[in-house]
């Protein structure tokens, strides 16, 4: 029996490996979802590769959660095609559902059950065997670090611990594909780091992860590829570096120059001189700070500082930043990501 | 489905507000009923009343009046009458009734002293005098009038006064009739049959038993309370359905994504809610029966069956409420409370006025009573107490089952949806 099981498992794994090589984890093609006149998803296309952490980045209301709900079969949609592991997704495709884990944006647990009972219940929806279930529940509790809180009811947990419970309920059956929908909203920095590390560990163990957030730093930190969407449309797609290369901005320089605030003539002269530098795209002065936006360049900071010294401008604090995804979003849409 | 059932049981039995409203509230309310309506059953019970009797010459001469009054006392007083009469208590036939306990008489020599006595002692309800024609007259004190009008505070007094008044009235009528006969046809007095019949009144009244159990006026309020409890327990089913609906809660959305059919999830929740409702009703019933001492007719198998039917119907209606589209969970729970309270009014829960309304509806708008689940659940227990036959009980069971079938069919239509336009 054992030999047969091994042979079957091996064959199954081989098939899965072949399957993995030929099909994407998620393939969304020209998905359209309308709420009356409002278009929530506007021919959105998405290809998620197996084994990657795929970030879906966009401001609140951009269509991230709507896209996920359509992919998961919760929401109806007007047109388009959705396939998960090559299969058409429908609410009654239970075999496919068994391979998926979801960590929703809102806490979705029973307040009347303890931590362990909640995780056990959600595990039981996917795993019928009791013995295996007990093992998976223990692993999930260990994974999210809730071992000391097994008998706690959700109301007794802090926001961060609640998020961890929410995650444990979504991943307890060890799914191949996991959706994390804004899992760090209203979470303290320590818990946030813990959650992000956990997601990376899940990915390292073989799970494909879809991660939605409007926190660009998180997406940039953990995602292999990032799709930026706004108004239900794809704005850009690529790795963080690829996205940053799509825009002209290469560096942002901030210089503290308090004397410019009281001398309008000098200020205008300084702004004109800095703006004349070849790498400078834009320069602005506000709150005693000169904000200079430059293209990519190795000597941007030196050039700016030399110009200011030539003009005898007393300098305070000076800093230089590489562009963020917010800059990418700003450049591509004309609005801030956090608007 | 089994794990969903167990989880739903845990959730239902750990939800504090459900525990209070479904397990504690019926006990609190029935305890209140016990205080408010506890003496309702005593309304038709004879209570012994203290009365003064003016033992003047007219009283002493009226042998018949004395005989009647002696018959209504457990220990007849001996009036100081010079004209010797035979012992009334020894010869009076009370017809096997409890009229022996109707009166405790205090003899006074004059009417003035009788008035003084009833004004000075509230326990003495009134006084009885006999006039020169041998007719009796009853006078009651102001405090007795007040007490008699307070049905809750003086159970049994009105009916006891009524019996005394009736007995005196009948005595007086017979006295007048016999007097007329003596004047117009004295020969009839030699007819022993005629004489015998004039002394008998019990042949006009027969005591029969229509039910196998003694009627209990207060029981209906407790039955209505059980019906209200059943309907409030709809909240179990409403919550159970709402937590499987993706458009009603984050929990519902997550459960909708699980590889378990919606039917199994709903069925697990329904069975748990049914069992919890049954337990809530059983606890309330046991308290009402054994602490409040309210009768249910003693047919325990049928009573348990009634609880199962009532709890099933409540959960079927709760499932329909939970499945109603375009309403939030909070609205549905609010509707549950409003329906259980509102329909309980029509089934007579809130006192004698509501009970009269319930009776009026039953007589004048039977269709409203027919579709009112609280009325039908109330009827379940009413049928078992008052009818020897099971036919009315099974008719009520049938009505509730039809109601349940319609509710579940409609709920199925609403719950078949798998995808939503909005979340």
UniProtKB/TrEMBL annotation, chain A:
<dbReference type="InterPro" id="IPR003593">
    <property type="entry name" value="AAA+_ATPase"/>
</dbReference>
<feature type="domain" description="ABC transporter">
    <location>
        <begin position="26"/>
        <end position="256"/>
    </location>
</feature>
<dbReference type="InterPro" id="IPR027417">
    <property type="entry name" value="P-loop_NTPase"/>
</dbReference>
<dbReference type="Pfam" id="PF00005">
    <property type="entry name" value="ABC_tran"/>
</dbReference>
<dbReference type="GO" id="GO:0005524">
    <property type="term" value="F:ATP binding"/>
</dbReference>
<dbReference type="InterPro" id="IPR003439">
    <property type="entry name" value="ABC_transporter-like_ATP-bd"/>
</dbReference>
<protein>
    <submittedName>
        <fullName>ABC transporter ATP-binding protein</fullName>
    </submittedName>
</protein>
<dbReference type="GO" id="GO:0016887">
    <property type="term" value="F:ATP hydrolysis activity"/>
</dbReference>
<keyword id="KW-0547">Nucleotide-binding</keyword>
<keyword id="KW-0067">ATP-binding</keyword>
TrEMBL record, chain B:
<feature type="transmembrane region" description="Helical">
    <location>
        <begin position="221"/>
        <end position="246"/>
    </location>
</feature>
<feature type="transmembrane region" description="Helical">
    <location>
        <begin position="266"/>
        <end position="288"/>
    </location>
</feature>
<feature type="transmembrane region" description="Helical">
    <location>
        <begin position="300"/>
        <end position="321"/>
    </location>
</feature>
<keyword id="KW-1133">Transmembrane helix</keyword>
<dbReference type="GO" id="GO:0016020">
    <property type="term" value="C:membrane"/>
</dbReference>
<dbReference type="GO" id="GO:0140359">
    <property type="term" value="F:ABC-type transporter activity"/>
</dbReference>
<dbReference type="Pfam" id="PF12698">
    <property type="entry name" value="ABC2_membrane_3"/>
</dbReference>
<keyword id="KW-0812">Transmembrane</keyword>
<dbReference type="InterPro" id="IPR013525">
    <property type="entry name" value="ABC2_TM"/>
</dbReference>
<dbReference type="InterPro" id="IPR052902">
    <property type="entry name" value="ABC-2_transporter"/>
</dbReference>
<keyword id="KW-0472">Membrane</keyword>
<feature type="transmembrane region" description="Helical">
    <location>
        <begin position="393"/>
        <end position="415"/>
    </location>
</feature>
<protein>
    <submittedName>
        <fullName>Multidrug ABC transporter permease</fullName>
    </submittedName>
</protein>
<feature type="transmembrane region" description="Helical">
    <location>
        <begin position="20"/>
        <end position="40"/>
    </location>
</feature>
<feature type="domain" description="ABC-2 type transporter transmembrane">
    <location>
        <begin position="16"/>
        <end position="412"/>
    </location>
</feature>
